[in-house]
Amino acid sequence: MFESAELGHKIDKATYREEVPALRAALLETQELLRGNGSFPVIILISGVDGSGKGDTINALYEWMDPRYLSTHAFYAPTAEEKARPSMWRYWRALPRNGRVGIFSGSWYSHPIAERIAKEISSADFDQKMDQLNRFEAMLVNEGALVLKFWIHLAKDAQQERLKSIEANPLTKWRVTKASWDRLKTYDKLQEVAGHLLRTTSTPGAPWIIVEGTDDRYRSLTVGKTILEAMQKRLADKSEPSSPVASPLSPRIDSLDVLSALDLSQSLPKDVYSTELARWQGRLAELMRHPKFAKHALILAFEGSDAAGKGGAIRRVMSAMDARQYRIIPVAAPTQEDLAHPYLWRFWRHMPRLGRVTIFDRTWYGRVLVERVEGFCSEADWSRAYAEINDFEHDINHAGGIVIKFWLQISDEEQLKRFEGRAEIEHKRFKITEEDWRNREKAGPYHEAVCDMIDRTSSGTAPWTVVEANDKYFARVKIIRTICQRLETELQVEPLKEAKVSKSSKAKEALEAKEAKEAKEANDEQGSEKADPSE
């Protein structure tokens, strides 16, 4: 794989001086066109062996291009803050926006290479990580990014000579450390690991470009020209991007699905609700203070029908937590900054560190719900999003995150009653909009999209909990109980025992539930909390 990068490629000074001005002018012009186009970012990975000139190559790019629209990120061993989050978090935060160029010195490949050389991970684990990175890069490419990956290569003898040369120069000797010489001793192992990595992660959308690093002029010109040609080709390409392959959705040949099978008549009497809510809130408070939770993060994702009671449920969960421990992220239409990055970028930014909680009121599932139904993205975009979201949640779980997802479902009749109730209350009218009424007309497509979402993204590590939410009391208790039970499982602690209810109490509760249902249907208690349309 490295044969062509060990042939002794060289460029003489005269040729170099002749070609650089034209290359520099073309790069600046193309960079300006990229900014004006603003439809995709350029992501450049500069990797390779020690002493191969990676830093000099980046310096040359800064000399030839407009540095105001370049960003460089060097990744070393993860900091304490980065270790407290999923491993990909720091790379997601560094992704350039559309129209800009981002240079990564070291990248998401550096840490797995070091781990494999040190035999800290097995060959199978390494291959699994490479497969995850392939899917990550495929997502970037499908989102429109131009991904260029350079591996700067030196033969073993050439690396040794180069390190000696750098160390002999008083102006550059600081760049050679004991670690540099130590890594030279593992050269053969690095070549074995790197060769395997380049072979398994060189994909059509993000191929590796191997460049010989012995001659500075050859290396810099090769990298500069490759970047220029790739940017020019991409800017000139006016064709529609090819649709990624996605598994077909299963046809429905009857009326039974995960939503239609729900029993929306389930309810709780007010006194039982008050007791159960307090009981599970207390349990949640205990679990959040448990020493084992310090090794986890909690991500709560709330989706549901309009007026299904997400806000009210979130408030009951919040009240059981220390306000310093959680954040609530309300998700609305994406901003211009959000649209200038890959779709999942705005959600990755809000991932909590270990020992913390993030509550999402609406989530990353907007792509396969509102964006799908309203036509805000192409079928290719939302059809591939299922796999991308599963990968996203897998990464969170692998880093200690506990993802708990809720879909709150209400009947069309209950939704209409809540809409009308909101419209009649002066200080609640802002909660009902024309869009809410319009969405009712698309109940069928939304129903189908929700069922597809649950079927395709309810995984073992991040399952969906579908909540029967016609009765707010029942829904709130089910939600907080589910959170507690999931935490008990993940933290491996003794579960809270179910409350004992006597037969007479059960009979009383059944009678009260029946009476409450009748009262609710007659709308006799419209002003009570249970019929309050504000939540």
UniProtKB/TrEMBL annotation:
Domain Polyphosphate kinase-2-related: 11-235, 269-490
A Pfam family recorded for this sequence: PPK2
Top-rank lineage group of the source organism: Bacteria
Residues making up the signal peptide according to the UniProt record: none
Molecular functions (GO terms): polyphosphate:AMP phosphotransferase activity
Record bears the keyword Protease: no
InterPro entries listed in its UniProt record: P-loop_NTPase, PolyP_AMP_Tfrase, PPK2-related
Positions of region (Disordered): 495-535
Keywords annotated in UniProt: Transferase
UniProt key word Membrane: no
PANTHER family (UniProt xref): POLYPHOSPHATE:AMP PHOSPHOTRANSFERASE, POLYPHOSPHATE:AMP PHOSPHOTRANSFERASE-RELATED
Name of the protein in question: Polyphosphate:AMP phosphotransferase
The organism of origin for this protein: Candidatus Accumulibacter meliphilus
